């Protein structure tokens, strides 16, 4: 018996049509004892926001604002991880130090000039993260005095791939803390106040 197939009807796509982007639904509220995966941005479910190393710092900052993120992965011309840039890099002392050393104007600063290069990046192993609690991640970020942490997985051939990330701002929000932009110490103190409340 031969199976019969039918061609589907096509419809013109309307002007202004968009496309579906992957989304990850994280719990609105978490406790420190919850699994760390409840606060990890899973890059198999969410498209990472990235920028090229040759992009101007101002364009990178505009991209962070547009997407509501405080960190961008920096990619090289081969789509490999070249580093990362954060809102703290853009809004902190790095641009002024660069201009003092190299001259030029604010508009001359490129992402590559102030980013944290790949060789200086540290990341958490997904295997360790899968057994960790939210409180472990908070302590890890606090101990490192960082707002973000990358998570990597290792393939069978030993290659590492960034597969997730943690943001202290996001974790604080999910814990119910009042998030203080730009001030890491205040964010941690808000988390500690939430912890003290139980």
Main traits of this protein?
8 strands; four-stranded mixed sheet; alpha/beta; single chain; CBS-domain; 198 residues; 34% helix
General description of the model:
The longest helix is centred in the C-terminal third of the chain and has 14 residues, at about 185-195. Helix 7 (about 170-175) runs parallel beside helix 8 (about 185-195). The protein starts with about 40 loop residues before the first strand and ends with a helix. A hairpin with a 5-residue loop joins strand 7 (about 150-155) and strand 8. Helices cover about 35% and strands about 20% of the residues. The protein is an alpha/beta fold and about 200 residues long. The mean pLDDT is about 90. It has one domain: CBS-domain, CATH 3.10.580. It has a 4-stranded mixed β-sheet with strand order 1-8-7-6. It has helices spanning about 55-65, 85-90, 95-100, 110-115, 125-130, 135-145, 170-175, 185-195, and strands spanning about 40, 50, 70-75, 80-85, 115, 125, 150-155, 160-165. It contains 8 helices and 8 strands.
Structure described in brief:
By secondary structure, the protein is α/β, with parallel strands linked by helices. It has helices at residues 57-67, 87-91, 94-102, 111-114, 126-130, 134-144, 168-175, 184-197; strands at 41-42, 50-52, 71-75, 81-86, 116-117, 123-125, 148-154, 160-167.
């Amino acid at each position: 018996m031969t199976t019969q197939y039918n061609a589907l009807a096509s419809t013109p796509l309307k002007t202004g049509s968009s496309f579906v982007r992957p989304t990850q639904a994280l719990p609105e509220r978490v406790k420190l004892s919850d699994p760390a995966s409840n606060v990890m941005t899973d890059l198999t479910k969410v498209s990472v926001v990235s920028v090229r190393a040759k992009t101007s710092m101002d364009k990178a900052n505009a991209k962070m604002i547009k997407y509501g993120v405080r960190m961008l992965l920096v990619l090289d011309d081969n789509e490999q991880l070249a580093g990362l840039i954060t809102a703290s890099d853009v809004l902190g002392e790095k641009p002024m130090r660069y201009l003092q050393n190299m001259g030029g104007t604010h508009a001359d600063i490129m992402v590559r000039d102030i980013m944290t290069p790949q060789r200086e990046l540290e990341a958490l192993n997904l295997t360790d993260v899968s057994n960790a609690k939210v409180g472990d991640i908070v302590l890890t970020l606090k101990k490192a005095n960082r707002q973000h942490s990358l998570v990597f997985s290792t393939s069978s051939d030993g290659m590492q791939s960034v597969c997730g990330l943690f943001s202290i701002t996001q974790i604080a929000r999910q814990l119910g803390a009042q998030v203080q932009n730009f001030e890491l110490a205040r964010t941690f103190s808000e988390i500690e106040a939430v912890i003290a409340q139980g």
